Amino acid sequence: MAVESKPLFRPEAIRPVVESVVLMPASTQPRVKLGKWAALLSTAAADKKKETELLPDYLRDVFVELLGYTGPADGGPVYTLKREALVQVDGKYADAALGRFGAAGDTIMVAVEGKGPRDPLDRPFAGRKRSAVEQAALYALQLRADWYVVTNLKEIRLYHKGHDTAHYERFEMGTLAADEAELRRFVAILGAARVAPDTGVNHLDMLFVESKKIGRALTADYYREYRQLREQTFAALCQHNPQRPPRELLALTQKILDRVLFIAFGEDRGLLPRDTIADAYKHRDRYTRRPIWENFRGLFDAVNEGKPDLGIDQYNGGLYKPDPAVDLLTVPDAVCEGFKRLADYEYGKPGSGSATYIDVDILGHIFEQSITDLEETQTQLAAGADADAAGPSKRKREGAFYTPEFITGYIVAETLGPVLRDRFETLRAAHQLAAKRSKKAKALDDPRVFDADMLDTTARNLLVGFWRDWANGLETVRIVDPSCGSGAFLIEAFDQMFAHYREAEGYLQALGSGSNLFEPQRTILTHNLFGMDLNGAAVEIARLSCWIKTAARGKLLTALDRNIIEGNSVVAPAADVSPRDHWRATFPDVFAAGGFDVVIGNPPYVRQEWIKGDKPYLQRHYRAYDGVADLYVYFYELGLNVLRPGGRLGYIVTNKWMKAGYGEALRQLYAEAAWLETVVDLGHNKQIFPDADVFPCILTARKPDAGPAPESARVCVIPREQFRVDDLSRQIRAEGVSVPRSRFGADPWNLEPRGVADLMAKLKAVGLTLREFAGVSPLYGVKTGCNEAFVVDTPTRDRLVNEHPSSAAVLKKYLRGQDVDRWRSEWAGQWMIFARRGIDINQFPAVKRHLEAYRIQLEPKPKDWAGKEWPGRKPGAYKWYELQDPVEYWQAFGNPKLVYQVIQYHPSYALDVAGMLGNDKTFFLPTADLYLLGVLNSPAMWWHNWRALVHLKDEALSPMGYLVEQTPIPRPTADQRAAVEAAVGQLVERTRERQTGRAAVVDWLRAEFGVEKPSQKLQDPAGLDSDEFTAEVKKGRKKGLTVADVKRLRDEFEASVRPLQRLTREADALEHRISDTVNAAFGLTPAEVKLMWDTAPPRMPVQRPITG
Fold first, then answer.
1. Among 45, 373, 101, 324, which residue's Cα sits nearest to residue 224?
2. Is 167 in the same domain as 109?
3. Which parts of the sequence belong to the Type II methyltransferase M.TaqI-like domain (predicted)?
4. Distance, C-alpha 650 to centroid of its chain
5. How crowded is the C-beta side of 368, counted as CA atoms within 13 Å?
6. Could you tell me which residues are beta bridge partners of residue 860?
7. Residues contacting 836, CB < 8 A, separation 6+
8. Is residue 502 packed enough to be buried (19+ CB in 10 Å), middle (13-18) or exposed (0-12)?
9. Which of 40, 120, 330, 1026 could lock 240 by a disulfide, CB 3.0 to 4.6 Å apart?
10. What pLDDT was estimated at residue 403?
């Protein structure tokens, strides 16, 4: 059973490093020893030796002498290879670690685990409970290493802890000894000079990042050409086949490209002769001129039926089934030339070295984007010339987005994994029970743990019988994606199922039971995987994804028309047919066995407005129905409906239903008819669906069966800033908490850990509401209706005052939301013309002249306006020169007050004593209570507000007036009030000094060094050291720095930035003093303070204090 690994690095990323490597001559001792190792390991004698006999010399000869690592005895203050590395897992130690080790401390880059030559690496061996790869991954985790190497001496593999174990770089000893190019690649990737350099970072990290960057660029380039070819082909078909409807021609365009793409893939993977497409394009009849298209029609027939004289095997499977609609097309030669260009890319096996290698991940993105583009074209065709008439594209209406591999991998593992574990244990127990009279039944305590050399015939037969039954039982696992799209979840499910088939075969081989007992690729497609999608183009592309995944030389493509089908998953064709009966009729064999074992997917994000026609059916057949529920709600219920008892469901979808009113019935359904297992709330996370403005969450659940119901579910809330793409599974395991299932009912779900609700309740019970405490309510900033006219800079303000002194009376300092900082706002030199209702504009002639230049934009819209678009402001009882909205509380702006932002990304409340006006992106409290200001800026209050305020895009908070009024403010003792007021007063002054100092540094850099656009780091230089400060200045200049320049910068750093750093430290100490005092005013215990920090949201205003 062949297994294809996926490389970690793109060949383009590795190539420059490989080309820079100069190998030592073949006659040198390390190269000679490499040859000897290859020779030894190719013999049967090596298999009889244990790792303890071989590994010490192997590490010395390969890692020290060949790759250049050093040990502690090699001299020097730093060495780079450490044996028996530091951390214990299952009573074992990592065999070695690569990094930098010495008196200054240890930095581990790579964990190394070595095994004997017979170890298969991918599965447990010789009585161990874990495979070598699993063991090494745990070592890497414990050692905090991002990389790990696993070797059985015959091969060396390099893994990254954030990738699944199908991705690795592999080096075989025999090849390294015989092939200089492969040896050069080995030394380039794992050489000590680059993995553990004297200065700089581990180059493996850079290769990893660069490979991802190259992959993204290649995806964009490839799709640009692929899309252009589709557009050109479609346009040509429309031109040359005017009698055919454009919608039909669009579908045929995609079908032809699917055929061409499979052949391009096949010729690079050895399924078809090389240059098959190029030959079809170049072939010409010497006597009869005919279209090149006829060659391609013949090629399609050859692939469908097989043509041995051309070396073409039969593949069929439905993709090349004769289709008169395709055969009767007129296709110009120019289009066929595009087919050849598409085939010029490299679709070969990973590690082919091509700069244009298109891997399966790239194809996944291409396929999903193809669906989107096709539907946009279909929308335009349906609307004719007016594309807007058809509304958003079908894909947008269907809400489909490509699900990245790290999400599909997690969801499939968390659903398929438990199903298989349950089945494995049931089968194991049954086999052990049947063998209970045998003294060897103990061999079935754990069928994965045995030493084949130590087994007698009875134990061996028991294990063989178990693994044969397990392999056969895998065929009965049924997995479905009810909104399969281009097949991302199905491909992931294929990979994970394949790993289980491979495991079974590996154990049978180890037990001497032979190999190739089954054909897993075909079995998985015909027995394990199922899918449905409303979009026919998506279904065809999903099938193509599966064919590309599984095609093998000389074997027919698997027919998928009964497994992956076009259809409406949630609405049956007839109104009186239930969804389950609809699915039963579609997949009768599955439901004869009770239903699906696993339901997975990314249900479409479709707003309820687009499913109005389906609502009568949905109301009749779904318990979760709500008149304003979006489509995904019904996929949640459908998933439970089609599962068998004990089956698992895993979806990624928006988190809105967990709290929204329209989700109440669904929440009740899941409380009664499902056992929640995990809920992962990912917040407003753009890393998952970059093109969608959604708040995704992952949910897995079990359909109740006869077993005991779990008491709790695993819950993990991951704010966007803390999300780890390459380590999601471990992050969820480490940061998740157990929450009683009793908390998940019809009411909005609370995903917080135990104690958080109690702490929230305590804050509210101890404190008074802000309105009660301060006797004030929040007031809104000024909305002008046309800032272009009413907001001016300082030079314009001075000009207006010079033109007429009366202007000064209506020109007020103006504060924007972005100007509000913690403690004290930094005025940006802007002014507002405060022309409130009732102003006599004629008393301010200069201001009137200024506003008249904007008269058209300032005019209020008449109530009887019947035109299409009004160029001015909204209707209202205001004059053209007045502010749009009345500001009855305008006098309060002139008094000391506390200002804050309408959209809060950070906890920023500030004291304003300058009487500034705020814009409509600010609120203010008409009080100058410094104690209140301290509470509002405290960590405790940000912790509370994260849970009490509305969350906006990008995880910002919305401190709406009524919510702020209810904010709990603790009643202080006299000493507590005095302590907070004193600290706040000092912080306001320190903030002023820091703002002035930062501005002075930036101004000096602009004047002396020409830094016109200082970086974010230079705008707050206190966070830099002297070298970093100099480097940032260099980046911002068009020319380099002289020695004198560097000295001036270092002198200025000491003179101006060092004092800013001192102010920052002083401010930090004051912040912590306020935090401690506010915590005390709330009466928080040490355990409650710890809980607050354990559950702290992103962007807490100060760092967690260091304790004990």
1. 373
2. yes
3. 527-689
4. 17
5. 23
6. 873
7. 882, 883, 886, 887, 890
8. middle
9. 330
10. 75
Instruction: Please write the tens of the pLDDT for every residue from 835-865.
Output: 999 999 999 999 999 999 999 999 999 988 8
Q: Is 536 helix (H, G, I), strand (E, B) or coil?
A: helix
Alpha carbon of 201 to those of 109, 194, 207: distances in Å?
10, 8, 11
749 belongs to a structural domain: no
What is the biggest distance separating any 2 CA atoms in the chain, rounded to whole angstroms? Answer: 109
Side chain identity at 1053, as an amino acid letter?
F
Which token pair is 717? 């809330």
What is the distance between the alpha carbons of residues 173 and 175, in angstroms, rounded to a whole number?
A: 5
**Total structural domains in the chain?**
4
For 796, the 3-state DSSP assignment is helix
- Whether 491 is in a domain gets the answer no
What φ, ψ does residue 938 adopt, rounded to 5°?
A: -80, 155
Helices (H), 119-240: 132-143, 173-178, 180-190, 192-195, 203-240
Q: Is residue 91 one of the residues assigned to a domain?
A: yes
Burial class of 196 by CB neighbour count within 10 A (0 to 12, 13 to 18, 19+): buried
990, 955: one domain: no
Between CA 598 and CA 595 the distance in angstroms is: 9
pLDDT for 886: 87
CA dihedral 1017, 1022, 1026, 1027 (to 10 degrees): -30
Q: Is position 379 within any domain?
A: no
**With bands split at pLDDT 50, 70 and 90, how would you rate the model's confidence at 344?**
confident
The first and second tokens of residue 969, run together, are: 């403010």
Same domain, 1011 and 925: no
99 and 238 belong to one structural domain: no
Is the distance from CB of 323 to CB of 300 less than 8 angstroms? no
Residue 561 predicted with pLDDT over 50: yes
SS3 at position 998? helix
* pLDDT value of residue 564: 96
Question: Could you tell me if 875 and 861 are in contact, meaning their C-beta atoms sit under 8 angstroms apart?
Answer: yes
Contacts with 379 (C-beta within 8 Å, 6 or more apart), sequence order? 387, 390, 391, 392, 393, 394
Amino acid identity at 716: C
Are 968 and 766 in contact by the 8 Å Cβ rule? The answer is yes
Q: Report which of 665, 650, 658, 645 is spatially closest to residue 743, judged by C-alpha positions.
A: 658
CB 923 within 8 A of CB 781: yes
Among 5, 7, 13, 6, CA closest to 194: 13
Contact (Cβ atoms closer than 8 angstroms) between residue 99 and residue 196? yes
Distance, CA of 96 to CA of 196 (rounded, Å): 14
What is the span of the domain harbouring residue 19?
11-201
Instruction: Name the band, by pLDDT with cuts 50, 70 and 90, for residue 497.
Output: very high
206-234 pLDDT, tens digit per residue, is: 999 998 888 888 888 888 888 899 999 99
Q: 909 is written with which tokens?
A: 């409340």
How far separated are the first and last CA of the chain, in Å rounded?
A: 56
DSSP 556: P
Domain end, chosen from 339, 358, 377, is at: 358
Provide the token pair at 11. 């060949």
Q: Indicate the pairing of strand 529-533 with strand 564-566.
A: parallel
Within this chain, do residues 90 and 114 fall inside the same structural domain, yes or no? yes
Say if residue 914 is in the same domain as residue 980.
Answer: no
DSSP labels for 930-963? HHHHHHHTSHHHHHHHHHHSEE-GGG-EE--HHH
C-alpha to C-alpha distance for 172 and 169, rounded to whole angstroms: 10
CA distances (Å), origin 36, targets 11, 58, 151, 515? 29, 11, 17, 31
